[in-house]
Amino acid sequence: MKTVRLSVIASEEYGEAGGAVAPVIPPVSTKEEVSPMASRTSQIETFLRPFVLPGITFGFILMVWTVAQATFLPTFPGVPDVWAKAVETFADPLYVNGPNDMGIAWQVAYSLGRVLAGFFLALAVGIPVGFLIGANKTFEQAWMPLIAILRPVSPLAWLPIGLLIFRAVDPSAIFVIFITSIWPVILNTAAGVKAIPQDYLNVARVLNFNRREMVVKIYVPATLPYMLTGMQLSLGTAWMVIVAAEMLTGGIGIGFYIWDEWNNLSVPSIIVAIVVIGCVGILLEAGMNFIRRRYDYSGKQE
Amino acid sequence: MERNAILQISKVGKTFDTRSGSFEALRDVDLSIAEGEFVSIIGHSGCGKSTLLNLVAGLEAPTLGGIFLDGMLVDGPGPERAVVFQNHSLLPWLTVYGNVRLAVDKVFGARKSAAERDEWTREMLSLVNMSHAAGKRPSEISGGMKQRVGIARALAMEPKVLLLDEPFGALDALTRAQLQDSVMDIHARLGNTVVMITHDVDEAVLLSDRIVMMNNGPAAGIGEIHEVRLPRPRHRLEMSENAAYLAARTAVMRFLTRNRIEKVA
Question: What is the domain extent for residue A44?
Answer without folding.
Answer: 2-76
